[in-house]
Amino acid sequence: MMFYGQDDLAPMRRMVWGQLFGQSVGKTREAAGRSIEEAARLAGMEASEWASVEAGFVPDPAKLRPMADALELRYDRIAIMAVLCRDAWEQ
């Protein structure tokens, strides 16, 4: 039987929370009727960068406000999601 220490689970926790954040961003984008390309352009990002976020890559916190604007979402909504998924930003 194998036991995992707290340090062993950190990468998995980061991945899971990153994916949850990304799925939330993707669902919000779809509900707004925007393509990845359009949302990325409005946020001043490359489409590949936006797609990476939706796939679970954790964005720089400075990107959250432009992403919220692109989604026509109040900043506090995306910030709350980031706080809920804060383990994604943990190293």
Descriptive notes:
By secondary structure, the chain is mostly helical. The protein has one domain: 434 Repressor (Amino-terminal Domain) (Orthogonal Bundle). 65% of the residues lie in helices and 0% in strands. The protein has helices at 6-31, 36-43, 47-54, 64-70, 75-84. The mean pLDDT is 89.
Q: Nutshell version of this structure?
A:
The chain is 65% helix and 0% strand. It is an all-alpha fold and 91 residues long.
Helix content: 55-70%
| Biggest beta sheet attributes | none
User: Which of globular, elongated, flat, extended, rod-shaped describes the shape?
Assistant: globular
Q: State the total count of DSSP E strands.
A: 0
Observed structural traits:
single chain; about 90 residues; mainly alpha; 434 Repressor (Amino-terminal Domain); 5 helices
Summarize the topology.
Layout: H1 6-31, H2 36-43, H3 47-54, H4 64-70, H5 75-84
Helix pairs in contact: 2-3, 2-4, 4-5
